[in-house]
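queue> pop job 88
queue> type: inverse folding (structure -> sequence)
queue> payload:
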């Protein structure tokens, strides 16, 4: 095999060649030291080390960097951390850069080894830690569920002015919650909020609130929302709706009502046709969410009151609003009120959809209004509203329950003729 020699590269400055000679001396000493201490070196590994001189002298920086990363990783893998490891790494100290440190950390799987290497590089002259190095170490610790050092590392990142990305923030917060360290997650979140733009932290706050709700800590979630609201944080309408749904799904109607009342005060654009990005306050979707949650929570009267307030606040109920109220009013057995709101919807110029008719038929069936349900079905047909298999199934079930099997058979035959069943 041809042995690599290291003559001065005629296209490279003399300085590069001299630095390459110094690197060769360092790596040769390191190789001999490791061999003396019974740490075996493969021929391939030694050859790679001798090639470093040629790479540097030829100005091939990327290859020399890869050599350094591979060599440091090799040392960490083959040795147990101790004074001798630090001595071997010291031989390569002159070639270490923040990029190399970060790349070495990215390749580690042993958290204790990674922490030792990170600590050692932090004690060296110069600035060997950057945002990528911190992020690589924090990500490794989160992945391996070794979370005790994470809060301090994140705080150090902040103190040193390094950028903490949204993905890293999410990883840390989710890992803390996964390990039951809720208070640590909230502490980190609050610390980060002082150094990040308000808008960039919105998703992080929402994540923590959602994780608290999932963990059953509803009161703590609402308390966190109140704390950040005091600072002047005003969530956009899209965020408002996510919060309303989250608290509603957690079964806390009292928080939903308080949250809605608080946020509705900040409504500055009463355009009920669509949700405007960047807009603050509530919109028609917010009303629909709360009305639906109130209905599901057995607070139908409160839902009706909120419905009555909509127009006074500049909102016009849409088809979703009416469908929600019609179905839940019928479900409560208040048939006359359901018919009233249905007629009101038509008078407002809104066209009933298949969902509207389906809700009416189903609700009438629940109220044992079989004839009215059958009549509504024919009204739907006369309005040329598209019939589907679900509408037929609802009515057939109602008829069968009422003992009207002949009518049910007729509908089943009609479904077959329309190829709704096979």
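queue> result:
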């Amino acid at each position: 095999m041809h042995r690599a020699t290291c003559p001065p590269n005629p296209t490279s400055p003399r300085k590069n060649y001299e630095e390459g000679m110094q690197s060769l001396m360092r790596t040769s000493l390191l190789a001999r030291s490791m061999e003396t201490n019974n740490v075996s070196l493969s021929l391939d590994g030694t050859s790679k080390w001798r090639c470093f001189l040629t790479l540097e002298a030829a100005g091939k920086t990327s290859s020399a960097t890869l050599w350094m990363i591979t060599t440091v990783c090799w040392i960490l893998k083959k040795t147990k951390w101790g004074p001798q490891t630090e001595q071997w790494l010291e031989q390569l100290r002159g070639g270490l850069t923040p990029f190399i440190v970060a790349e070495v950390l990215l390749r580690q799987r042993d958290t204790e080894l990674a922490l030792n290497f990170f600590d050692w590089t932090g004690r060296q002259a110069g600035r060997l830690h950057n945002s990528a190095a911190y992020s690589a170490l924090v990500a490794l610790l989160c992945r391996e569920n070794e979370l005790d050092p994470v809060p301090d590392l994140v705080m150090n990142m902040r103190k040193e002015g390094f950028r903490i990305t949204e993905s890293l923030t999410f990883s840390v917060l989710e890992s803390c919650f996964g390990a039951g360290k809720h208070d640590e997650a909230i502490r980190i979140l609050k610390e980060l909020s002082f150094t990040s733009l308000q808008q960039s932290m919105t998703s992080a706050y929402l994540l923590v609130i959602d994780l608290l709700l999932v963990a059953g800590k509803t009161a703590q979630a609402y308390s966190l929302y109140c704390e950040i609201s005091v600072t002047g944080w005003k969530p956009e309408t899209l965020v408002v709706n996510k919060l309303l749904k989250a608290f509603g799904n957690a079964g806390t109607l009292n928080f939903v009502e308080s949250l809605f009342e608080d946020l509705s005060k900040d409504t500055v654009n009463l355009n009920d046709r669509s949700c405007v990005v960047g807009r603050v306050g509530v919109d028609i979707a917010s009303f629909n969410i709360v009305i639906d949650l109130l209905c599901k929570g057995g607070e139908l009267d409160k839902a009706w009151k909120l419905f009555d307030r909509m127009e006074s606040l500049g909102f016009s109920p849409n088809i979703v609003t009416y469908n929600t109220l019609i179905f839940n009013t019928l479900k409560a057995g208040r048939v006359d009120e359901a018919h009233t709101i249905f007629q009101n919807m038509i008078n407002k110029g809104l066209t009933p959809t298949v969902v509207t008719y389906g809700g009416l038929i189903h609700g009438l069936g629940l109220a044992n209004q079989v004839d009215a349900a059958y009549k509504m079905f024919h009204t739907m047909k006369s309005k040329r509203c598209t019939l589907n298999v679900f509408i037929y199934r609802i009515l057939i079930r109602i008829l069968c329950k009422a003992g009207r099997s002949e009518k049910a058979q007729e509908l089943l035959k009609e479904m077959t003729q329309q190829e709704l069943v096979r």
